[in-house]
Amino acid sequence: MNSYAEPVRVGVAGATGYTGVELLRFLARHPRARIAAAMGSPGSASRRVPALARLWDAPVDALDLDALAGSTDAVFLALPDRVSADIAPALVSRGKRVFDLSGAFRLRDVEQRRRWYPHTPDVPAGVVYGLTERYRNELAGSALIACAGCYPTAAILALQPLVNAGLVDGPIIIDAKSGVSGAGKTPTERTHFSECHGSLSAYGVFSHRHSAEIEQELGVAVTFVPHLVPIDRGILETIYVTLPRGASEKDVSSALESAYADSPFVRLTANELPEIKHVAHTNFCDIGWRVNEPTRQVVLVSCIDNLVKGAAGQAVQNFNVAFGFDERLGLN
User: Fold this and answer.
1) What is the DSSP string of 223-280?
2) Which of 178, 189, 227, 231 makes the best surface tag, with the fewest CB within 10 Å?
3) What is the CATH number of domain 151-305?
4) What share of residues in the chain are helix, strand, coil (percent, to 5)?
């Protein structure tokens, strides 16, 4: 049980981005949290954010480490990787609990981190990978939680029970599709309306950093191909695996049902394959599957909202578990 009689004072850095706004929306209605600070990135201009009206009516000022540390018990970082790499350890050293939504501290292997997150030379001791369903027991003792990435969340939740049960024989192929908000708020040619509207494109083939994150958690190699689709939010992943000889659809169902019997935000839909619209604006991950027993082929479909279960909602879920609150607080 938690020892906090008063609401936890929370701060959000990167409050003007898509994820930062989502965080503030959840935290504003959280019964055990009080928003004490909402800041932008280092050097950003002070401004009011219309989307935050009645949630945070003060201007969102540039990130001030001293002010942030002095006014909070816990801090959510919705910042670029290179900024979080500097800010997170500094906050932890001042006794703050940090929930980092960047990728700066997710990878444990030094070489992989050097390749994908060169601004993070080292990972402080005690960092917990923030996928609640997998590391629920470890969250309570960690001061720095590296919240899982959006694509990896959908992939790992669908695949981990099958890998753990020995139900995967051969290659794993992850065909992933994400809405444009997954690219962040800073405009690029790829995310320009004229470029993405009415189109669908693959990107990052054999060169997406989330491959390393997925492989780290599963302990097996995967082929991961992300796609950009012209919707604002949501991720749908179609995952292809082959069962070992003698395994059946019942084994797949049993592995998933056993893994998530006590997980309030994982909904198993079995043969009723999920859709993005079923999870949009929620913290749910919906997982469905079909099995062709004669060929031993399994198709898994995993859906999340990339801004919620893939980012802000998962961070709040981690916060709840870390502080001993009901896992669902502020998220239902």
Assistant:
1) EEEEEE-SSSS-EEEEEEEEPPTT--HHHHHHHHHHHTTT-TTEEEEETS---HHHHT
2) 189
3) 3.30.360.10
4) 35, 20, 45
From 150, 196, 285, 303, active-site residue: 150
Residues carrying CATH 3.30.360.10, the chain: 151-305
pTM metric for this prediction: 0.94
Task: Give the Cα separation of 309 and 317 in Å (integer).
Answer: 9
> Does the domain made of 8-148+310-322 have the CATH classification 3.40.50.920?
no
- In degrees to the nearest 10, what's the CA dihedral of 261, 265, 271, 276? -170
Distance of CA 133 to the CA centre of its chain: 12
Q: Quick one: residue 81, left, alpha or beta (phi over 0 = left, psi -120 to 50 = alpha)?
A: alpha
Does the active-site annotation cover 150?
yes
CB 7 within 8 A of CB 73: no
**Amino acid identity at 189:** E
Q: Where in the chain is the domain with CATH 3.40.50.720?
A: 8-148+310-322
Within 13 Å, how many C-alpha atoms sit on residue 42's CB side? 9
Partners of residue 191 on adjacent β-strands: none
* Those residues with Cβ within 8 angstroms of residue 193's Cβ, 6 or more apart along the chain or in another chain: none
Q: What is the pLDDT of residues 52-101, one digit of tens each?
A: 888 788 888 899 999 999 999 999 999 999 999 999 999 999 999 999 99
CA 14, CA 16: separation in Å to the nearest integer? 6
